[in-house]
Write a structure and sequence with these properties.
single chain, mainly alpha, 2 domains
């Protein structure tokens, strides 16, 4: 397995700069810690999606279909559906 998807994921999130928090105390530290967690999970998701092996699994296709359905419903709800006049 090549590391090209991982490198692409790293490049996508390269510009996000969140300071490392060792001892979180206070609201700002907790927000930074939460942002680090969200960025870490986003990197994992992007790397998973870009791997060719992951598209051989049923769960990837099911997840993609669920995501597309949610996006379609959200677009209809807010009137941003490009397929309707």
């Amino acid at each position: 397995m090549s590391s090209a998807p991982l490198q692409l994921a790293e490049d996508l999130f390269e510009r996000v700069n969140v300071e490392y928090v060792r001892n979180p105390s206070g609201f700002k530290a907790r927000v930074k810690q939460l942002m680090r967690f969200v960025i870490k999970m986003a990197r994992k998701i992007v790397a998973f999606i870009l791997r060719a092996d992951s598209w051989k699994l049923k769960r990837t296709w099911i997840g993609a279909l669920v995501f597309l359905r949610l996006a379609y419903v959200a677009m209809n709800e807010y009137g941003m559906n490009p397929f309707k006049k």
